[in-house]
Please model this.
Amino acid sequence: MNQHEKETLLSIEDLNFSFTTQRGIVRAVRDLSINIKKGETLTLVGESGCGKSVTAHAINQLNPMPPGHVDSGKIVFNGTDLLTLKKSEIEALRGTQISMIFQEPMTALNPVFTVGSQIADVFLTHQDMTKQEAMEKAVELFRLVKIPAPERRVHSYPHQLSGGMRQRAMIAMALASPNPGLMIADEPTTALDVTIQAQILDLLQDLKQHIEMSILLITHDMGVVAEMADRVVVMYAGRKVEEADADSIFHNPHHPYTLGLLNSLPSNKKYKGARRLEAIDGTVPDLLTIGEGCPFANRCVYQTGECSRSFPKETIISESHSVWCHNYQAVKTENRQ
Amino acid sequence: MQNNQTSQEIIKDPTPLQETWYNLKKNKGAMVGMTIILIFIFMAIFAPLISPFDPLAQIIEDRKTPMFTNGHVFGTDDLGRDMLSRLIYGARISMAIGVISVGISLVFGILIGVTSAYFGGIYDKIVMRIIDIMLAFPYILLTIVIVSVLGPSLMNAMVAIGISQIPRYARVVRASVLAEKEADYVLAERALGAGNFELMFLTILPNCLSPTIVQATLGVGEAILSSAGLSFLGLGAQPPTPEWGLMIASSKEFITNAWWIVTLPGIAILLAVLGFNLFGDGLRDILDPKMRN
Amino acid sequence: MFKHILKRLSLLIPTIFGVVTLVFFMIALAPGDPARVMLGERANAEQIEQLRAELGLDKPLIQQYGLYLSRIVRLDLGKSITSGQKIASEIKERFPATIELAIWAMLFATVLGVLLGVTSAIRRNTWVDYTTMGGALVGVSMPVFWLGLVLIMIFSVWLDLLPTGGRMNIRYFFEPITNFYVIDGIIMWFKEGTPKFLVSALRHLILPTIALGTIPLAIIARTTRSSMLEVLQQDYIKTARSAGIKERRVIYRYALRNALLPVITVIGLQFGLLLSGAILTETVFSWPGIGKWIYVAIGARDYPAVQGGIIFISIFFVLINLVVDILYSVVNPKIRLQ
Model:
């Protein structure tokens, strides 16, 4: 037990996060708990609007507050609860121990500065060095993320780079730290071509071999999950509905929503013959009017009366696999055939 | 599926006008602006009934009476005319200036904008060139040129302001017609045999009105300001017309001993223009989604 | 970038040509005879004929236009009727006064406007924001000449702190060198060892600067705020924050650089408009610049002078917009590196 705790880098405990809007209070994240161990890649999967980005942004406090606010919960990073830190202490963590890469490399880099100077600025913010040293460091990082002709490229403006190059530059910027602890990657490949996507994922895998860091990868793409994940958390409408090691998610899913996601994979042979779930039809419920029941109930073919009344308790399938579903048994039997 | 249909039948969608009004009611600035505008319109319409004095009557023994004296709530000017009555009649003139000059810009701006967007080609190119040149002119100078050509008078000032603003309206209208021109409903109407005139003014134009209305509302305020400026330069209203700008101009030497004669007409202009600006800004926030934050 | 600048330069000549043509034909095609208007009711036919010949009004319109154009190309704007002086030299004499005031007003408007706009944006929907934006709206709703008069009333008449008009204490023996009085004042300080000229020049500038700068100030503040709000929502701001860049730096370096791009265009436009607003402000403050001069010419029905003054300001307006456009392309790397 003790050994386990030592390995944990980040643990989110019973986080509730909501936004006050003109129409009412939107509960974006509900009772969410997540653990990321050192060196591990955890993927957070779900449709857009399921709260996965809000969760990620809650860690380094990038959600706009107000209107956003933490209702309850803890976010413990390396033993400290980030939610108790002062603004300046959070700023000091950002870019050193918690860094982030974003979905749109087109818009995530500042258009009026060269990419090199943006990276150098991160070094200058956190470390004592001269501008020239910082620029040299930037070149080094460009080499690390395999940008060709790095000495020249650091002087480019974002619009002069291709999408893939820009994403590499973003990754380089996230690595501008002596000891990166956690990299949060928010849909890092969504905006890229398929071939470039693969290259970026390879790069991330490759970097993990060299640098001891954990990755929190946010995606809606089960293909990316298959490529990258050690462990997977499936989210739906602000709730965690299933959590397991990557292998179990793909070969032994227990939640109807997970099944739906897997079925939406075009080239997934294993589920080709399986019954097409209508689950993925319909729409995500409005987070304003959502009740206490299972949020997936209105789209779920296995739905029973209990589902709209209460959110299910955790069911432990194995040591590394849990599901939150009233009817997981039914799901299981039907998909065993 | 069934649920969807019934719910749509029960809850009627509000008309665009209702929706605009609903949003407008929530916009405090717009409501304040509208109230100010309504007060000035009321003053303009009922000026003879609510004015305590004849705005032109000179009471020589009551010259430069301070505020709240001898029944003159806002005092009198250098010729003993009641300030409050002159200000109330001034509302009449300023509202007329707004309506007439914006009317001129609107009519010609829409005509030019719609036709040049609709027909395109060389006609459009030439028209837009001329408009670019007119916009390259600081428009106060343009009005000065026009008035000095037409001769100084209030009517000519209104015409000049109207003409000098045509390019702006033409631009706004043209841009929105261009955006609507190829829409499906236009093509459908065309396929049904609608003529050019019908397509331009009955089919397309009603769908391009939002930005034009916003521009016109803000334009009224600007017209009032420009007219005051022209009168100040002696190019607009002529004495003894109780035009606010002229009232300021003809009393500027009294700032040393009768502050109210200069100050009050300026406050009247400020309030009227502020009203139209507040209302126009509110309308823009609601009607022009691009400007929304 | 050079392509862009060339393209803009190539548009310059047709625009100036168009402006000159517009002014010429509007005055030429006007009902009524300028010569008669200029000479007034009591003039006899002979005098009118003489003035018509002098102004070239007896020639066919096209020929008049050709003559006018050829004179403009030689920078000859004709002679003023009232003073008999060359209009070009009258303008040259008065231009520094106008430009000096315009530059101060623009500096005032830009510095304060950007500061207020940024503050409003980062304190969005607080009382700071509401006050600033309310003030800005009042600013654009005010007649400039009235604001000038009220300022004179308060600061000159009531408080007796600042002069009511002019550029320099008339009791000082002062011979302008560059005609930019602040610069002249500094030079005199070195030459005569007294800062009194500089102080007087600055004191005379304060009220006209505020009056003339208020509208641009309001517009710049509003533009900066909305531009800043838009930029603060951009992903790259989130990136900068996620990299731990300090909030002050995020706002004043990462966001402001981007937010200022549209503001630059507005500043240029306002600077041009300022020159036309100068007609009103200079009249109020007896400021001996082009604006006051045009005002006097309007009163005296000195058509050649009005025409010349307006053409001059218009061309200057076009030139400023060109300079600003080029400046914009230099500041914006997306255009610069094309």
